[in-house]
Amino acid sequence: MNPFPPRITISSLLNPVKSYQCGCGREFRRKGNYTMHLAAVHIKEKLLGCPTCQRPFFRRKDLNRHQASVHTDEAPYMCGCGKAFKRNDSLTKHQRACYYATSVIGSDVIILLG
């Protein structure tokens, strides 16, 4: 059971009914979100291409993540055991299983034993 109540926004108060329904069953309050869903999921429209490998992406954040993790040798996310990762989500997944995993938050060091 979620201890936090659902987030109430001005948008949800002004438009409480989801008014844009897709044929796949998804509903959207905003036309822009519905349009983006159609283009990305059903039309498979890819607007951005990677300049290095030409792999297509719909969202700029996906293209940026791809470029940082595939086309660079940087691995800025470091575990306390010494392993380095190109992406934060890869580090987080590793830390769940790593006995020596540490995470630095501000100036505090927390040791995760898992």
Automatic annotation (TrEMBL):
Task: Tell me where on the tree of life, at the top rank, the source sits.
Answer: Eukaryota
Residues forming the C2H2-type domain are: 20-47, 48-76
Q: Which PANTHER family match?
A: ZINC FINGER PROTEIN (PTHR24388), ZINC FINGER PROTEIN 646 (PTHR24388:SF50)
Q: SMART domains annotated for this entry?
A: ZnF_C2H2
Question: Which key words tag this protein in UniProt?
Answer: Metal-binding, Nucleus, Repeat, Zinc, Zinc-finger
InterPro entries membership: Snail/Krueppel_Znf, Znf_C2H2_sf, Znf_C2H2_type
Name of the protein in question: C2H2-type domain-containing protein
Flavoprotein in keyword set = no
* MF terms in GO: DNA-binding transcription factor activity, RNA polymerase II-specific; RNA polymerase II cis-regulatory region sequence-specific DNA binding; zinc ion binding
Q: Does the keyword Coiled coil apply?
A: no
